[in-house]
Design brief:
Layout (H helix, E strand, L loop, with lengths): L1 H15 L3 H4 L1 H12 L66 E8 L2 E8 L2 E6 L10 E5 L3 E9 L5 E9 L5
Antiparallel strand pairs: 1-2, 2-3, 4-5, 5-6
Length: about 170
């Protein structure tokens, strides 16, 4: 019983130090100022501009990070009117992509010959001699363990065509 009286006395002494009026006077003053302000209209929301999608149209062009090819018109090879791409043949799937996106990653060999594995165009593809690769009528002419040799037929700018050899070297540790 004495301990209960002691707890009550300590609680009363502790509560006697709290002054309710002085602790909230600044808050009451602020609230009175806010209530006294004139009530204005709420600003309307800003106009909504719909998102306009951007379509990148330069994916098929030369990368801006590659050095430009310098061509001296005097030393430029002239094309031949005898060399022409076969426009009547049906195009193969890998001709839709630039040859720069392809890299050789391996070879396969069986009784019918050697095939190269090239990565690009969203996967790894098999090519053999005679297949076409790249946008410039590139025909695979030779496959060995270290490279794929391709001959492209490109316009020379004067109405003729040039055969341009390209090589896809084996990329190791890819």
């Amino acid at each position: 019983m004495k301990s209960a009286h002691l707890v009550c006395i300590v609680a009363l002494v502790g509560l006697s130090g709290c002054d309710v009026d002085n602790g909230f006077q600044d808050l009451q003053t602020y609230m009175d100022e806010v209530r006294a302000r004139p009530r204005g209209a709420i600003e309307p929301l800003p106009a909504f501009r719909p998102y306009e999608a951007f379509t990148y149209g330069a994916a098929a062009m030369r990368s801006p990070f590659q050095a430009p090819v310098k061509i001296d018109p005097a030393s430029q090879r002239r094309g031949s009117r005898d060399i022409r791409p076969d426009e009547s043949r049906s195009r193969q799937y890998l001709e839709r992509f630039n040859i720069e996106v392809f890299e050789m990653v391996g070879t396969l060999s069986n009784g019918t010959g050697m095939q190269a594995l090239v990565r690009g165009a969203g996967g790894v593809h098999r090519v053999r001699v005679g297949d076409y690769l790249g946008r410039n009528h590139g025909r695979v002419v030779e496959i060995d363990g270290a490279s794929v040799e391709v001959v492209e037929i490109v316009p020379d700018g004067d109405g003729g065509w040039l055969e341009r050899p390209r090589s896809l070297a084996l990329k190791e540790r890819s």
